[in-house]
Description:
The chain folds into two domains: 4-242, DHBP synthase (Alpha-Beta Complex), CATH 3.90.870.10; 267-357, 3-Layer(aba) Sandwich (Rossmann fold). It has eleven helices and 15 strands. The protein has helices at residues 13-20, 25-46, 68-78, 105-114, 148-157, 177-184, 223-230, 238-242, 275-291, 306-322, 338-350, and strands spanning 4-7, 51-53, 60-64, 87-89, 119-124, 139-143, 161-162, 190-193, 204-207, 214-217, 235-236, 267-272, 296-299, 327-331, 355-357. Helix 1 (13-20) packs across helix 2 and helix 2 (25-46) crosses helix 5 (148-157). The mean pLDDT is 93. Residues 84-87, 122, 134, 137, 139-141, 164-165, 202, 205, 216-217, 254-256 line the site of adenosine monophosphate (AMP).
Amino acid sequence: METKILEVQDLNKENLKAAMEKSDDIAQAKIDASLEKVDEAAEIIKNGGLVAFPTETVYGLGANALDEKAVGKVYSAKGRPSDNPMIVHIARASDIGQLTPMLSSKIIKLVDSFWPGPLTLVLKKKDNVPNVTTGGLDTVAVRMPDDPIALELIRKSGYPIAAPSANISGRPSPTKASHVIADLDGKIDAVLVGGDCRVGIESTVLDLTVDTPTILRPGIITSEDIQAVIGGKVQMDPALILNRPRDESEPAKAPGMKYTHYAPKAQMTVIEGERGNVKKEIERLKALNERIGLKVGVILFEEKDFVVAAHEFFARLRQLDDENVDLILAGALSDQNEVGFAVMNRMLKSAGYNIARV
Length: 358
Ligand code: AMP
Ligand code: MG
């Protein structure tokens, strides 16, 4: 199949403001052209096709969440295991009622505070949400993304859009349109080519179907942020606290937890320990491996720039793959900070939990 490349302007607030001030006709024309491309993409979704689109977290691969056949195509295009459920994206908070019978003051407070934004809520599902969308679970994960193109696409298609990350299953998540094209060109109907994703790691996933709200996937919205809004206790799923390979005898609560994830082509090792030692060890291992002719890539973020690390991590993995490095040496970040913890969650998975302590 030929994948349509639909270029769109990043419709951020500045662009919109410029266009609204009628003086800027060029900006207005660009926005009109973008909206036409979104119309085209929405038609594809309506007709049961697949469209990749930008969100503030990572690029998503979207299909009509209520159309079993369309959702089935997402699994095959990505090579995603069919029991790994998808997040359903909506454009208006009030549309949550189409997907779940749950409505509580907690949900309303969270939606009010964090939507549109990178927080996904796991809720009891209504019968109209097909089992393929939820990987056979009786719960549904819902989020309203904070990206004007994504919101416009959902609104115009008229359906909630099921969208996992727009990568081949197991590869690093896509934070640029070029990553999507590298993985899915020829396998999906269209890509809305917008700007780079602002956040760079996937949304925080919060399970509200249990007594104590539980984070199943850490992200830039932290347990503290959530606690400040709903009070009470918010816990990390114990499988995350270990931040180590899962014990296979335990069932995974977020089915995504049990699969190999984010893996670069190169062999990867995470170096953990006191910062100075980590830097020295990376230098030592780099020199050692280069001496025997290996190409070595290094990922070492400033220790306190957790948000920057989140923004850049996946793109850096893909860049090193493009440079054909044989080995990636990555410096661990402090997991005491919850955004650092969220990045470490991805870093350890992408290294297949191959860790050297110094
Ligand atoms: P992705 O779209 O690739 O970011 O993956 C979506 C993530 O959300 C996966 O880790 C899923 O396991 C998780 N998820 C989606 N729906 C549910 C659900 N109903 N219950 C628990 N986790 C979910
Ligand atoms: Mg994914």
